[in-house]
Amino acid sequence: MKKAFVFPLLLAGALTACSDNSSSSTTADSTSTTTQTTTTEPAPATPPATTAEQGVSVGGAMMVPSKNIVENAAGSADHTTLVTAVKAAGLAETLSGTGPFTVFAPTNEAFNKLPAGTVEGLVKPENKAKLTGILTYHVVPGALRAADLKDGQKLKTVQGEELTVTMKDGAVMIDGARVTIPDVISSNGVTHVIDAVVMPKK
């Protein structure tokens, strides 16, 4: 009787030991697998490419739509005389305003075609009214592009008189001054570069 009773106990012990060994092996394998797993961090996002603002080159500087008419003109090496005159006439703030305006902008060379001493005399404080009249004769309310200008068209200026548009050999002429660079777009209007200073009739 003792032998019969002891054998089942030994068998049960052996099975329990095998079960424990199997569990330990599984746990070890699991631990090993976990240890070998590595975490891959995502690559940093690439910032979107930025593109330069499109504009028109005037006087060695890029005229861009995000700047107003005066800011753009101030960057042009060909319009230093015009900018000086605009400031002397107290028009810089007006032409920096909402607008929109169309400005026919004479170059330095255009001002140099005037009789000697003309510009120097105009920028003097006592001639401010006359200078203002000349400059505002170059400004038309609204934003007119070259495609909007037609032969024989009359443009009412801020000064009060009218400019006359003519077409000659495919070029746009404003009171006889040729538009050399059209459609310079600013945030508050359009500028057309011209090769002569146009004078009011009165």
Question: Would you kindly provide a written description of the structure presented here, covering whatever features stand out?
Answer:
There is one protein chain. The chain is of the alpha+beta class and 202 residues long. The protein has a domain at 56-194: FAS1 domain, CATH 2.30.180. Helices cover 36% and strands 22% of the residues. It has 7 helices and 9 strands. The strands form 2 sheets. The chain has a 7-stranded mixed beta sheet with strand order 4-3-9-8-7-6-5. A hairpin with a 2-residue loop joins β8 (177-186) and β9. The longest helix has 35 residues, at 2-36. Residues 1-38 have low confidence and may be disordered. Residues 1-19 form the signal peptide. Keywords: Signal.
Write the layout of secondary structure elements.
Layout: H1 2-36, E1 56-58, E2 61-63, H2 69-74, H3 80-88, H4 92-95, E3 101-106, H5 108-112, H6 118-122, H7 128-136, E4 139-141, E5 154-156, E6 162-168, E7 171-174, E8 177-186, E9 189-194
Parallel strand pairs: 3-9
Antiparallel strand pairs: 1-2, 3-4, 5-6, 6-7, 7-8, 8-9
